[in-house]
Design a protein that fits this description.
The chain is α/β, with parallel strands linked by helices. It has one domain: Nucleotidyltransferase, domain 5 (2-Layer Sandwich). Helix content is 38%, strand content 21%. It has 5 helices and 5 strands; from the N terminus they run βββαβαβααα. The chain has a 5-stranded mixed sheet with strand order 3-2-1-4-5, sandwiched between helices.
Length: 154
């Protein structure tokens, strides 16, 4: 699925672990950010970055640097038939800019279909009502993107 960026095994870092990884749920208004721990055992929410802030890619670069991120995982919204539409095109355009800002960090795309729905269900099960989810739903979706990537990698 990932044709624009190298696979982790192609990276020249020499470090076999792709963790910690940064999960990104890109949206036109907000970017949900989550990270794995250094062992890849668990993903946790980090921050929601507004796309209209001064420099959202700069903020993501800052987060990646502070957390010593080794891998970027970007959610790619595929259609139910597995094809890419205009939303996926927007995500790829954003990811290209993000990759240019952090060329030393390998990037992968993960199908993000249903991640927001799954995140919303989990938040509801944890007692969060729909109106209470707005501030954290993007972070929770980024956690689901990372969980899916870790599951696929194992």
């Amino acid at each position: 699925m990932n044709t624009d960026f190298p696979h982790f095994s192609d990276a020249s870092s020499g470090d076999a672990s792709p963790h910690p990884a940064l999960g990104i749920d890109y949206g036109e208004a907000r970017i949900g950010v989550a990270a794995t721990d250094e062992f890849g055992i668990m993903a946790h929410p980090v921050e929601t970055v507004a796309t209209n802030c001064k420099n959202p890619i700069g903020r993501l670069t800052e987060i990646a640097s502070q957390r010593k991120i080794k891998t970027l995982i970007v959610g790619l919204p595929l259609r139910l038939d597995g094809t890419e539409g205009s939303s996926a095109e927007k995500v790829r355009s954003f990811a290209k800019k993000l990759g240019a800002a952090m060329p030393e960090i390998p990037m992968f795309f993960v199908d993000e279909t249903y991640t927001t729905s799954v995140a919303s269900e989990k938040l509801r099960a944890a007692g969060r009502k729909a109106h209470q989810q707005k501030k954290i739903i993007d972070q929770a979706a980024a956690v689901e993107i990372l969980n899916q990537w870790m599951e696929e990698a194992s």
